[in-house]
Amino acid sequence: MKSLKNAQTPAHSSPSFLRWGLLGLVLLISLLLPWTLSPLWIRIATEVLMWAGLAQSWNIIGGYTGYLSFGHGAFFGVGAYITGITMLHLGLPFGLGLLISGMAAALMAVIIGYPTLRLRGAYFAIATWAFGEMIRQIATILEITGGAFGMQLPAYLNLPFFYYLFLLMTGLIYLTIYLLLERSPFGYKLLAIREHEEAAEMVGVDTVMIKIKAFGLSAFFPGVLGGIYAYWVTYIHPDSVLGAVITDFMVVMAFLGGIGSLWGPFLGAGVVQLVNRYLWLVWGEGTFYLIVIGAAICAVVLFIPSGIIGLLESQIFQPRTAWKEIRKKVKW
Amino acid sequence: MLLESRDLTKAFGGLVAVNQLSMTVEKGTVLGIIGPNGSGKTTFFNLITGMIPSDSGKVIFNGEDITKLRPHRIARLGVGRTFQIPAPFSKMTVLENVMVSSFIHTSSMKIAKKKAWEVLEKVGLDEKADFQVLNVTLEDRKRLELAKALAIEPSLLLLDEVMSGLTPVEVKSAIHLIRQMHRQGLTIIIVEHVMDVILSLCDRVAVLDYGRKIAEGTPQQIVNHPEVIRAYLGERYRARS
Amino acid sequence: MELFLQTLIDGLLIGGLIIVVGIGFSLCFGVMHIVDFAVGEWVMLGAFTGFLLVSYFGQDPMIYLPVLFIIFFVLGWAIYPLIYRAISGKRHNPVLMGLVFTFGLSILAKGGALSIWGYHIQSITTWLSGKSLALGPITIPALRFSGFLFGILITLLLMFFLYKTKLGITIRATAQDREMASLLGTDVRKVGALVYSLYAGVTGMSGILIGALFSIHAAMGVKYCTLAFFVVVLAGMGYIPGVIIAGLILGLLQSFVGVYVGGRYNLVALFMVMYGVLLITPKGILRRGI
């Protein structure tokens, strides 16, 4: 029976006491963080939280469902702009603006998903990509967005506030994913679609509907995060919140961390954002990071398709077997 | 009459896979479909379940026209099927695979789990419930196919070559299993190459060739039908029987 | 009326060049079943390579067309094993992995180009630049016209290769039914390598013409990516003859939107049409896609 130990681990292994303890500890540390760090590091921590939320949102449709959204940054940008517009032009409170941003992003996702999620994944990838490009162009055309000049939001310079807000939102995202995707019929159906779409239909899963819902959900969160980001940085323009690079980052973070897993995107976001900030400190502004992102995506696909989380899960705590297991996951 | 197809036709490019096929299945019976490779058996299943759209013709299930329905709707009406090449959800456990089917009737994890367990017991997979699908044998995958189809609690079950690749002993236990399900009132259509299976299970047998039905009757009528022997069974089979 | 005619001619001429980008891309999708997100970057790299060749060796850019084809054919041949590795059936979800891989490649190429050449805009001039043919009130710029001719020529050559040679027929058969082709003894991997190299060669080669017609900069790939995507969706994914019609329609659409609505609405118009096609007839306007 011992040799079957690995085989018997359920796909959704229930978190043990140790895991909950670890989670509590991490949460406690993150609550105390702003009192111990310098502003630069609080800033970096805030960014990591935001990216962890964004990468996980992408993971809903890209990782759990297996449909690649290559224009996901658009939802972030749309959220940023709509929050700005509701605050500046409609005078609505920030919280309500966030809600509207999320809903608008989700609505857009449903509209794009409706025709494309019936087709092969390649169509979806193309359509979302083209959508992202279009939204950026629209933002530079419209007057209400400030065109290429961008938009200045009311300033609220309170770094810890935004840190906690991102912590709350990203926490909510992970909780939602945990409850909805790891622990409910919805999540099982999504996995079934990813693993074998036709077989899922044969057992009564309304695949199109489920996919549209998943896409809507995966767009809602970036919409809200985009809104918070806009209020945080106070000045937004098409390249800063709608640049293709936002999607690129989501993809590389989710893949590097491990797609279709709960903690993979978090790990990926942490690693990528820290490396990114390091490069920035060493080399200053530049485009070199694009090479790093591109190369990282290619390398992950070729060598560690299960991502960092896949490597970690391979019994890393038993030194004797860990190396063997890792070698198995790293595909040469 | 539980299922009826009327002049069902499907062509892929120039190749007519299913040609004006009319078939009826009475409630509580077992219909066998045999025929050479490429004679349209699997395509027929794909048409009934709505996996591919038909060019013309009708499918009537339980008095309802299901020709244009989407696959999941047909499944919800009570048509279950297995795939010739097992199509499990690879990154899930055996139990979770079956639970996906159970969600057709319930959205409670608890009830779904319980129902999935019952089905797994029925097909003899309960001991491997927590195994990752990637780690189970071909026979168990075939059983899992069956379990997934049964868990939607169908009134009609379409079995697509569930015996292929199994050893004689495994075939025997599979036959036993199918007979049991039949006794519990399930209507079944079997596509199979193993003639012993067809002979021992079916009330009626239809023979397809190039998408057309060339014969239909009781198993005994079929094995002695001259055209069937020419097109499919071959002289060798007649000599043996 | 003159403006209308001029717009029409311009659109058709551009369409000829777009067909070249679309045709290799569509073939590539048909055989490998993945979308190459790096399609626009091949155009960009082709343009820059042409620019470098011209600035080092002089001469007219047009004579470098065959050189570019060979360079990019070899490059495609060198990269294909990696793509094959990503899409080979051994791993989980090959299509997804293939898409992400080419997406990564495109970021890599764009990042590389931006890091080397920055955001500077370069241009190539040929002896055709600035010359034009007058047809009554309508002018036909010589460069656009030769681009169009080039497009037609390449398309005819490719069609001849695909429909009249044994190798071409094997490729089409593979594009139509990969499994059947491999059962009949076709080495699908080799066919894939050939198609990818061919596509990279043709796309890279068209880069120098596009560069001469418009301008060359590191971020230009995005535009041609969009155009290629649009063409294959309109044509029906993997359906080669549809590319010709779709390319011309796209050329016209671009031209008319540019003149009558404003060039900045181009992407919006493209997306709207693409969305409409996906909504109404997802297999392309001729309903022949896969």
Summarize the structure.
Chain A contains 16 helices and two strands. By secondary structure, chain A is mainly alpha-helical. A two-stranded antiparallel ribbon of chain A has the order 1-2.
Descriptive report:
The complex is a heterotrimer of chains A (332), B (241) and C (290). Chain A is an all-alpha fold and 332 residues long. Chain A has one domain. Chain A is built from 16 helices and two strands. Chain A has helices at residues 5-8, 17-36, 39-64, 73-88, 94-116, 121-141, 159-181, 185-195, 197-202, 207-233, 238-242, 244-257, 264-283, 288-303, 307-313, 319-329; strands at 151-152, 235-236. Chain A has a two-stranded antiparallel sheet with strand order 1-2. In chain A, helix 4 packs parallel to helix 6, helix 7 (159-181) packs antiparallel against helix 10 and helix 12 (244-257) packs across helix 13 (264-283). By secondary structure, chain B is α/β, with parallel strands linked by helices. Chain B has two domains: 3-78 and 155-240, 3-Layer(aba) Sandwich (Rossmann fold), CATH 3.40.50; 87-153. In chain B, 39% of the residues lie in helices and 24% in strands. Chain B has nine helices and ten strands. In chain B, strands 6-7-8-3-9-10 form a six-stranded mixed beta sheet, with helices on both faces. In chain B, strand 9 (204-209) and strand 10 (212-217) form a beta hairpin. In chain B, helix 3 (94-102) crosses helix 4 and helix 3 (94-102) runs parallel beside helix 5. Chain C is mainly α and 290 residues long. Chain C has one domain (2-280): ABC transporter involved in vitamin B12 uptake, BtuC (Orthogonal Bundle). Chain C is built from eleven helices and two strands; from the N terminus they run ααααββααααααα. Chain C has helices at 2-32, 39-57, 65-87, 94-117, 142-164, 166-176, 178-183, 188-213, 221-235, 240-262, 266-280; strands at 132-135, 138-141. Chain C has a two-stranded antiparallel sheet. Chains in contact: A-B, A-C. Chains A and C meet through helix 5, helix 6, helix 12 and helix 14 of A and helix 3, helix 4, helix 9 and helix 11 of C.
